[in-house]
Amino acid sequence: MSEFTKTLCPYCGVGCGLEVSPPAQFNKAINRDSQGNPIWRVRGDKAHPSSQGMVCVKGATIAESLDKNRLHYPMMRDSLDQEFRRISWDEAFDLITKRIQTVRFTQGPEAICMYGSGQFQTEDYYIAQKLLKGCLGSNNFDANSRLCMSSAVAGYIQSFGSDGPPCCYEDLELTDCAFLIGTNTAECHPIVFNRLEKYHKKNRKVKMIVVDPRRTPTAEAADLHLAIRPGTDIDLLNGIAHLLMRWNYIDTGFIDDCTSNFSAYAEVIRHYPPEVVARQCGISIEDLETAARYWGQSQRVLSLWSMGVNQSSEGTAKVRTIINLHLMTGQIGKPGAGPFSLTGQPNAMGGREAGGLAHLLPGYRLVKNDQHRAEVEDFWGLKRGQISPNPGLTAWDMITGLENGAVGLLWIAATNPAVSMPDLERTKKALLRSPFTIYQDAYYPTETAAYAHLLLPAAQWGEKTGVMTNSERRVTLCPAFRQPPREAKADWEIFAEVGRRLGFVKEFAFANSGEVYAEFVQLTRNRPCDMTGISHEQLKIQGPTQWPHPQESRGAGEAGGEIKTKRLYTDLRFHTSDGRARFGAYYSRGLAEPPDPDYPLVLTTGRLYGHWHTQTRTGRVEKIRSMHPQPFIEIHPRDAAVLKITDNQVVEVRSRRGKAFFPAKITKAIVPGTVFVPMHWGALWANNAEANALTHSESCPDSLQPELKACAVQVLPISQQ
Ligand code: SF4
């Protein structure tokens, strides 16, 4: 029997296959981390269809983060100025159930909130939904995916009648034109980019367009880089549409047979002639025309995007405007074509399937939909009307709920909002007001642990068995290959035990996570994400598979599920009531907080190749820390000259909400008028260098995703280093 366990990388939504083996079996001179713990061996899984053996620095070094600074025991304190003291799990469960009952009967179930994470496995997500939305009657479950890709969810639902990226990674190697907007794929989704770049280099006729205010490594590889001003994405997209229409590159047959609302859209794009669009976006008319020509003349166009599009106060409109280009040119439902959102986290897709946002229910259902609620209520054995028809509090709503006393209990799991939320000073003040915060995580300390009353040690990746789904809808079993340290428990087990202690004994009578998954997939029957043909056992035997994978396809195909599942909408029928995809007609509104004389620069935030989110894991890996030792701010030489800033000089960056300090990196890689700061550094890793001290919480009205990507700032030189 092989000493290697096949699993999935727990970092980004690319979802690369990994093989892991114990330290002792692989290397007599065992490698140890800086705290002396033996390091497990990790390598890429050549058989995993998504990554084909490739792995980036994060995946390759994941094992080094497994043992350092782990939270081993439940700990509690009565107030935030006290030290934590160790307690037993029994005491912890007792405390949680008493607190939940008190809040439930004094403030009502809607005062109970849980803020979860795309780091959850699907089983964790599902049990949390059943506990909160089903048994407790509170739809206040939201996840950090709200900050990452909820605009993509809203865009897909509004355009296609259902969520779900319609493409697959194979499309990266079949396209004629890759249109990347708001995504630094080379650094943030490296293995997706490797596949695309290899193919692009081999096929010189294939075009790659990158839209980004920064000249990122992704933009470096492009045939055409459109360095637009932040907030002008819709101008650009409508401008490309205008030219496609003018040059008659549109697919009238597809528009007539498969779509609705085209005339409203055509009226909008009429107002986006190239002269206006080029001026607005800060690019040349020639480059705009080249982009439209590349798109219009290609047989197969694939667009890719991530947080640069989603994290916007008009995020849903941007997503739909990308989709519009595909609809007007018939670029969907065929190999090498389609609108493909890349998810940030390893199982953000599983969260969508399990209903892990405040407006969702399991099986791609909506809280607001009467029939959807009734279906879930029946399945869970609840009384009709037990699930509230109102979407719950989103991530930012929970912060404002703490401010106004609407939140009586906040349960945070596997995420670090004291770094990742917008408007951090306000966020931290709100967290200080929480009557009772449970923080469930694998690591201690973290920035958020400082705001908790009760700490619960969670088993993490490799210490519990569960399922994760990557950006191409590929589901992979991630088996436990080691014991959780000391008293750490799987997230789903913690939620289930709380459920049982609240009296829902039969509802949470699961012997293992395989049983949880088996129950969950029944709720996907006949839904767009039908996974009734998938089980832990099937995944173990047949390997990763894409959904939809209904029961009748069980056992079919090499990987058990390659029947019509690579791409959605190949029959050109959509999930809307009339089966047609809907055009969205949007004028650009621009940034929620545009620059002005007081705050004359636009700050955009982003990610670096090695680090992951708030460094909870990657901050413990020496190799990654030495790659990215400190935060910085990128400034164009023209702005630096005006501000009299020299390279590496420390600058103070101020917005209307806060300030932070960074050494300046003067570079032409950023457009004039815009500055860039990576978002990874919280209070634990650097002093006063938190990007989100500056950002604001203005959100997209449809997706309620905050505009973390842009705010107005001023930059002031401080000292010479
Ligand atoms: Fe992990 Fe993403 Fe890197 Fe793949 S690309 S190894 S999933 S971090």
TrEMBL record:
What PROSITE patterns does this protein map onto?
4FE4S_MOW_BIS_MGD, MOLYBDOPTERIN_PROK_1
Q: Which UniProt keywords apply?
A: 4Fe-4S, Iron, Iron-sulfur, Metal-binding, Molybdenum, Nitrate assimilation, Oxidoreductase
**Top-level taxon of origin:** Bacteria
Recorded hits in InterPro entries, A to Z, give: Asp_de-COase-like_dom_sf, CT_Nitrate-R-NapA-like, MoPterin_dinucl-bd_dom, Mopterin_OxRdtase, Mopterin_OxRdtase_4Fe-4S_dom, MopterinOxRdtase_cofactor_BS, Prok_molybdopt-oxidoreductase
State the SUPFAM superfamilies in the record: ADC-like, Formate dehydrogenase/DMSO reductase, domains 1-3
Q: Does the keyword Translocase apply?
A: no
**4Fe-4S Mo/W bis-MGD-type domain: residues covered:** 2-70
* GO terms for cellular component: membrane
Its needed co-factors are: [4Fe-4S] cluster; Mo-bis(molybdopterin guanine dinucleotide)
GO BP annotations, alphabetical order:
nitrate assimilation
Query: Which CDD domains does the protein's record reference?
Result: MopB_CT_Nitrate-R-NapA-like, MopB_Nitrate-R-NapA-like
Under Gene Ontology molecular function, one entry of this record is: oxidoreductase activity
Q: Which parts of this chain are annotated as the region Disordered?
A: 543-562
Family of this protein: Belongs to the prokaryotic molybdopterin-containing oxidoreductase family. NasA/NapA/NarB subfamily.
User: What is the official name of this protein in its record?
Assistant: Nitrate reductase
Organism this protein belongs to: Amazonocrinis nigriterrae CENA67
